[in-house]
Amino acid sequence: MNLTDSFRTRVVLLHSNDIHSRLEHAAQIATLIAEERRTCGSDLVLAVDCGDHMDRMRVETEGSDGVVNVELLNNAGYEVITLGNNEGLTYSSQTIANAYVNRAKFAIVCANMLDSATGEPPEWLLQSTIVDKNGLRIGLIGVTAPFTDFYSLLGWQVIDPFEAVRGQLGELRRQVDVLVVMSHLGLTSDRLMAERLEGIDLILGAHSHHLLEEPIIIGGTTICAAGKFGEYLGRVEIGIDDTTARPVFRASCVPTAALAEHPEAAAIIGSYLEAGQRRLSRVVARLASPLPARAERESPLGNLLAAGLRRWTNAEIGLVNTGQLLGGLAQGDVTAGELHALCPSPINPCLMTIAGSDIRTALEQALLPEFIQKPIKGYGFRGIVLGTLAVDGLSVTYDSANPPMCKLTRVHVNGEPLEDERMYKLGTIDMFSFKAGYESLAKAVQYQYYLPEFIRDVIEDQLQDPSAISESRQMRWRNESI
User: Fold this and answer.
1) Sheet with 221-225, side-by-side order of all strands
2) Rg, the chain, Cα only
3) 145: Cβ–Cβ under 8 A, 6 or more apart, which residues?
């Protein structure tokens, strides 16, 4: 693509992705979109979002089931969005439909998500759409990451995204001047799509949080992406080559940090904050004494969560990293808002069938500072460090004076020695199945996921049981050196 001084901008395409409910940044983006419309004229500007706008770690999103995000997209004048895994996997299909239906003023496009019951997209979800801008017909196809095992538990059938795009390409290509794929697949998949599928002019990327300040060009396809959290807004000027009649692009990413929040967007955030706080003020339990939580060592709240995962999945052993908990619970009333604040991660219970040797490896690692203090990013984790392991159904004796990976002296499973060759039923979290943190736990031979419940729902359930609270104070790890 050679741009010359004769390049004439026909349309300005603005694209965001992976905002993850950084709502103030969404409000700053609204200011930038409004300025582009004032400068260029509304008929020349098209704003789209490529998924993961929602994130339930935020009170406004949690308290409104994502409606605040939809209202911010409406306010900013987005015309097309696609779904990311944070929309599709953290809510039931009915809840996510409720957020959009009769409320969204934009098209929701995703070609590879189908209703399991019908094998077709629900009425509110399009596989592709065409937008007319300044005499250009722009076709947009959306696709999202195919977490098939998870989506099937929520009533979705997720098909191969490349096949979904291929299925839309032929007919759509003949109808449009510019063909765009809004991809919530990640940069590796975007590159493969550009290499394997002909007829795509522009891929707008997301999911892997990649920032492309200069676009990638593969064959006849241009790939753009705007990072994460709304720190940048992607800007693509679209022109048409006078000789070939093909689209040409001039792409950049515009930083948002210095922008003021759009006043109407700021007001929307404020109103949903108040409503969310009211909704999350619901009292879920009352504690006679505190339940502390520590990332670096065993503590009652971590034990309570491990026991809850064991109980939720009907497993022999419960196990979870203590970094999931950002704080403990004080004596007195416990609200839904407190559980949301101390356990914001959209992480689900998981039942694994796994060898005793792989459990033993994780227990050894849980005694090492490099694991306890290890920063974790992604995989649904919204904490800071991995933390040690909280366990239930296990009693662990170790000698801290021994060398690394040789500290365990005795491990018992419900009174019987842990057998390295035996397969155990382990109640834990889905994050470990992605080879995150304690990687030996990803060697399980079978997984069963529990959706849409999060681990904070497991804690709430445990808090209803006085015996579970009492048992959480019983220590499961013993250091022979002390």
Assistant:
1) 128-133, 136-144, 178-184, 202-205, 221-225, 216-218
2) 25
3) 84, 85, 161, 184, 185, 186, 207
Which two structure tokens, joined as six digits, stand for 153? 């538990």
Distances (CA, A) of 339 to 57, 82, 93, 324, 390: 11, 30, 24, 11, 18
Assess contact for 272 and 68: CB atoms under 8 A: yes
Q: Cα(391)–Cα(393) distance, rounded to whole angstroms?
A: 7
pLDDT value of residue 7: 78
pTM across the whole model: 0.93
Per residue in 75-123, pLDDT tens?
A: 999 999 999 999 999 999 999 999 999 999 999 999 999 999 999 999 9
pLDDT tens digit sequence for 265-303: 999 999 999 999 999 999 999 999 999 999 999 999 999
Cα–Cα distance measured from residue 263 to residue 366, given in angstroms and rounded to the nearest whole number? 48
Q: Which amino acid is at 253?
A: C
Buried b or exposed e, range 275-299, using 16+ CB within 10 angstroms: bbeebbeeebbeeeeebebbbeebb
Distances (CA, A) of 406 to 5, 354, 362, 396, 438: 68, 21, 12, 13, 17
Secondary structure string (H, E, C) spanning the chain: CCCCCCCCCCEEEEEECCCCCCHHHHHHHHHHHHHHHHHHCHHHEEEEECCCCCCCCCHHHHHHCCHHHHHHHHHHCCCEECCCHHHHCCCCHHHHHHHHCCCCCCEEECCCEEECCCCCCCCCCECEEEEEECCEEEEEEEEECCCHHHHHCCCEEECCHHHHHHHHHHHHHCCCCEEEEEEECCHHHHHHHHHHCCCCCEEEECCCCCECCCCEEECCEEEEEECCCCCEEEEEEEEECCCCCCEEEEEEEEECCCCCCCHHHHHHHHHHHHHHHHHCCCEEEEECCCECCCCCCCCHHHHHHHHHHHHHHCCCEEEEEHHHCCCCECCEEEEHHHHHHHCCCCCCEEEEEEEHHHHHHHHHHCCCHHHHCCECCECCECCCECCCEEEECEEEEECCCCCCCCCEEEEEECCEECCCCCEEEEEEEHHHHHCCCCHHHHHCCEEEECCCCCHHHHHHHHCCCHHHHHHCCCCCEEECCC
Return the closest-CA partner of residue 345 out of 9, 56, 87.
Answer: 56
User: CB 329: neighbour CB atoms within 10 A?
Assistant: 24
Q: How far is CA 44 from CA 4, 12, 244, in A?
A: 21, 6, 22
